[in-house]
What does this fold into?
Amino acid sequence: MSRHYFKTSHEGSPITVLIGWDRPMNNFFLVIEKPAELVGNSMAFDFLYTNLQERDPFNHDLDYYRAVLRHFQIVVPESMFIEVQRDFEKKIGNRVANHQADCSFTELAIE
It folds into this structure.
């Protein structure tokens, strides 16, 4: 599964947006994660959104997820959508990248 991350904020709180393509399931996905609270020595997480909350969580295209992000008024770099589409077209799995607001990104892993 490819995973493309972007750290930003929503309503004054830090969030991480994750967009990717799951090669075995043959679907795109979107997760908007926010820290919920510190628990012991680790951070617990809450989700502002995950496609798994949807009635039909596995049959959405990237335009659908663009609309979800617009709904939350979250702007992500276009590079995320370009690279996830590339992963889909080339059937790339296990790719991990961190994206920056200027559309640059750092690839952390690829298999």
Q: What stands out?
A: The chain has a mean pLDDT of 90. The beta strands are 3-10, 13-22, 27-39, 42-50, 96-99, 105-109. The longest strand covers residues 27-39.
